[in-house]
Fold:
Amino acid sequence: MENSKVNIGLFGFGTVGEGLYNILKTDSKYCFRNICVKNENKKRSVDISNILSTRSRIINNSNINLIVELIDDCVVSYEIVKSSLLKGKNVVSANKKMIAYNLKEIINLQKDNGGTLLYEASSCGSIPIIKCLEESYGTSIESISGIFNGSSNYILSKLFSEDIDYEYALNLAQERGFAESNPLSDVGGFDSLYKLVIISYHAFGVIANPDDICVFGISNIRIDDVKFAKKHGCKIKLIASSRIIDNKICMSVFPKLIPSSNDLYSVENEYNAVLIDGKYFDNHYLSGKGAGAKPTSAAVISDIVSISKGYRYSNCKIDESLKLSNDFILRIYLRFNCIKDIAAFNFVDTIEIFNGSATNYIIGDIYISDLLLLKKIIEDNDLFIMSLEDVNL
Amino acid sequence: MENSKVNIGLFGFGTVGEGLYNILKTDSKYCFRNICVKNENKKRSVDISNILSTRSRIINNSNINLIVELIDDCVVSYEIVKSSLLKGKNVVSANKKMIAYNLKEIINLQKDNGGTLLYEASSCGSIPIIKCLEESYGTSIESISGIFNGSSNYILSKLFSEDIDYEYALNLAQERGFAESNPLSDVGGFDSLYKLVIISYHAFGVIANPDDICVFGISNIRIDDVKFAKKHGCKIKLIASSRIIDNKICMSVFPKLIPSSNDLYSVENEYNAVLIDGKYFDNHYLSGKGAGAKPTSAAVISDIVSISKGYRYSNCKIDESLKLSNDFILRIYLRFNCIKDIAAFNFVDTIEIFNGSATNYIIGDIYISDLLLLKKIIEDNDLFIMSLEDVNL
Structure:
């Protein structure tokens, strides 16, 4: 559809959808043919016409040559994207959970039916990480990691810059619009996880099931943990990471102790950042805003422009022989309440046990596969776990 | 030539050419059909066959489907790239000066003859800045700036971390292989200038003549200037910058006072970094190694992989109505020896004049167009100039 008019069918008119609409409505190259919303009668700050709540009428409208899908519901998002791709339509989506769980199918749907799906806005807000990985690195990447969630990074920033507790910091994030009213996906690490699955596919060609990956979030963090980090001149950041070790891929999301020498140490508030390590270029660092309506709209617009130029992901790195493995030993800090909390932890090596009047912690080496089985114990007993990989205490 | 063998005609076998050869020689997808060197009989650490010194035999060889041009000489580079593109061949080049001075012609040569030219390695070493700008930003960029030269950044880093003078720091850079035996292009700001012209084309569509742009380098810097910066909690970095102001584009290369709050403050040694500001995404930051054989080879390889997938720059941003203007006022620091040195400087406003026993400087506002005319006076009288834009002293 190069040079011709882009007739958009837009699903979802939340902050991102509305932001997008406001930016593109004055550009004659774009026309919002139909906008599909859950509630047709809801009062809106923008006066939009062509509202429809029947999805199929938009997808089946042959005058619409681009579907832009910006809704939260993962199941509905899947249905919209699938039926659009089945009709060979071009689609832009920002739904990271839907994409992470359905990568293989959406690749095949594009291959079989000719449509294109782009989803830059799904990962790290406005940072053009997916196109970067698609176009610039070949097979030379060895690891990719970073701060992929703006909401939890905002909370962690506040914990380190102000003398407040987690609950208060979460409230601040919600007031500023950086965290959802149900913050579980952000602070539980799942939002980072979905982005990690998508980014790792474009970096390594791996198709990983999000459910197989070890994920710990920040919701159990206490001031004692912040104090521990500060004492060692470090900050705590929620880090998503993939690295190739012995032809296997190790993927995880962990709170991690970050020393001041690390580029990620100074990434604050709603910013995201990505570190890429590779054979020849050593290391690259990218950062930018990872949360908020405008940065997300910017990424959606970049996809709309690309798709109208005929751009598509090559999907040429796909490597089904590259398998996820959790058989790796990780050094962790585990803050606990009483000794029975850690009875089930099968440490390969114990470095330090601290029992204080206010806080207790253990530092030790443990298999990630073991941690995966201990997730419920950690959550139920209000334990806080963080990775000490890459830091010498 | 997707999926088929890439038959390479390689021009130049210096550190980058040799690095590239060593990386790709074991990959059966690539074949170095011919390697063109200046001196066929020179002793080399690598045993290469198929050496030729007749350029036309390589370019005219119909079995060669990719020309990789990695030579220093700008005129020869132009001849190779032009005759290859005239034959509709695909070309990868790293010669920033040649590209900066011939942008319009090489765009037209591709359009008229069907070949593709990629040149990611020309700008900021391994950072994939050109592909990023091509694929991810549309027309939303407002300014782009950064540290584009690893050699001069290495020298500046040493001046700030060790108590040494410019000559000694330059020697260190040369010993480490980060500066050429003739360092003028690096320390004079010209290397940054050529990269700025290329990057600005891909950011804004502007085609600027390098000779029209105001460029000052770091070769006149003295310990007094370093002390001045340190006193204000700042570092000095060589900054290339383009920004849109009132539908014109202001482009320049200046040493610049950088406060610690700026992302560029912590970019050290051979690293390069790019800051991109835009309407919707606010700001992005990218960094990576900008000098050395391996990072440059990595960028060349990324281009070879892209070109074999059919990738080409869209050249769709081209905007000949966007004109370079030097009619902008800049606040500068100018260190001088005696008052007659600055007699010709037509300051719009003078903020501060300092006359000390060891050093004299003036801080004032001046038109960039006036500075352009004063370049010879500044160089001949050993004056040091730096931009104080964006810093409050």
